[in-house]
Design goal:
Structural class: alpha+beta
Low-confidence stretches: none
Strand order of the largest sheet: 2-3-1-4
Radius of gyration: 31 Å
Largest sheet: 4 strands, antiparallel
Oligomer: single chain
Order of helices and strands: HEHEHHEHEHHHH
Number of strands: 4
Length: about 280
């Protein structure tokens, strides 16, 4: 196979794998951000006006040890004076001018794991906490959870469809590129068959070459994805694009395996096609 054709196959395959890698990375990051957004939902526990410090400490301890508490987080106590200050000086000044007391209550906020971010689970958690001593009420943004879950499903379906479309385009593009690259070898392939060489013997050099090309294209695509990740990480470090190395290793391995499979199958199909043709059909 002429070297320019090898170069075109490798570059074409690398570009397609790079685009597929971007779609997969986008899908992974979208799901991760959606999960973080859901798990950062605050459940607000309002304390009774006359609650005692012992009741408050018992509440915080109980939340920390509960099954529905998100590991790695700590319930946060927010006094009503601090909450009023966070709402702005204008509101605090207006209340003072009207001679009104702070209408807010002391609150404790906490988070739940993703498994509890369903309407029925949140309602059960709210009902359980509301029975504890010193608790006036439990509140959360129920509609927010439903909207985030619905949007997450829509994004996942859209990205899955886009990945399937890219995979189809990749297969067709690489197959046509391989067919053109082997076009110049069609007489050599047929001549070997006519002199008695088996199909396996004829195909073997092309298939081994396809494996090398697939590996090289996959490595180039992985390098492009890692380079783009590094650039985005330098611009937006809060994304934590390298925070889960195991998932990224699966992504990179999938790109490499897909490159080898697409190129190998395309070479196999094209070589067998030329072997099935009659000699007159090659002209």
């Amino acid at each position: 196979m002429p070297r320019p054709n090898q170069f075109y196959v490798v570059i074409s395959l690398a570009l397609v794998l790079f685009l597929l890698g971007l779609v997969a990375l986008w899908t992974f990051q979208a799901n991760k951000l959606t999960q973080q957004l859901q798990e950062n939902l605050d459940l607000i526990v309002e304390l009774e006006e006359g609650h005692t410090e012992e009741q408050r400490e018992a509440l915080i301890t109980g939340l920390q040890t509960a099954d529905f508490h998100r590991p790695g987080t700590t319930p946060e106590y927010v006094p009503k004076a601090e909450a009023l200050a966070e709402m702005g000086e204008d509101l605090e000044r207006d209340l003072n001018d009207l001679g009104l007391n702070n209408p807010l209550l002391d609150v404790v906020t906490f988070n739940v794991p993703e498994a509890y971010l369903q309407s029925d689970s949140l309602a059960a958690v709210s009902a359980a906490v509301q029975t504890w001593p010193g608790v006036a009420g439990v509140f959360y943004q129920e509609n927010f959870v439903a909207r985030v879950s619905a949007n997450a499903r829509r994004i996942s379906y859209a990205l899955l469809g886009l990945a399937a479309l890219f995979a189809l385009v990749a297969g067709l593009l690489i197959h046509n590129t391989v067919r053109l690259s082997l076009y110049a070898n069609r007489f050599t392939i047929k001549t070997q068959e006519l002199v008695g060489a088996s199909w396996g013997f004829i195909s073997r050099p092309y298939l081994w070459r396809s494996l090398g090309q697939g590996l090289l294209a996959g490595l180039l695509a992985i390098g492009g994805v890692v380079g783009l990740q590094s650039w985005l990480q330098s611009l937006l470090p809060e994304l934590n694009l390298f925070a889960e190395p195991q998932a990224l290793a699966l992504l990179y391995g999938g790109i490499l395996l897909l490159g080898v499979m697409i190129n190998f199958i395309s070479h196999y199909v094209v070589v067998r096609r030329y072997l099935r043709l009659r000699l007159d059909d090659l002209y």
